[in-house]
Please model this.
Amino acid sequence: MDGMKADVYWHSRRRMWSLRIDGRVADHLPTLALQRCRMVVREAERQRCISRRQRGVHAWIQGSLITSPEISEAFVEVGYSPFVCGSFTTRPGFLPIWEAAIVTFDKDGKAWALVSDHAQLETAS
Model:
């Protein structure tokens, strides 16, 4: 499956990552990685989620599947909460992030991004 374009989001009930290909959930995996990543948030769905105080799939990371690399100090933790910000953010600083060279998804529900353009993090502050 390496190189295949996919969307990935955390499935809170299964406590695994959902892998969506061509709009359909293809699998649920404990770990995986993407390259050439773009963070997607659908704002209208986010607003609905906030008003209802109920989570729904409206944010994911898009990219091409790759074999998971080792996480080094160059990676930053990224996360998403519809109640905090309208974009994915770095942790712990909560700086908005929109793209990354690589994102690795861990079995504990954390995502780690290798940011190719650090200017996007600096200009956000």
Summary: The chain has two helices and ten strands. The chain has a mean pLDDT of 92. The CA atoms of residues 85 and 96 lie 8 Å apart. Helices lie at 43-52, 119-124.
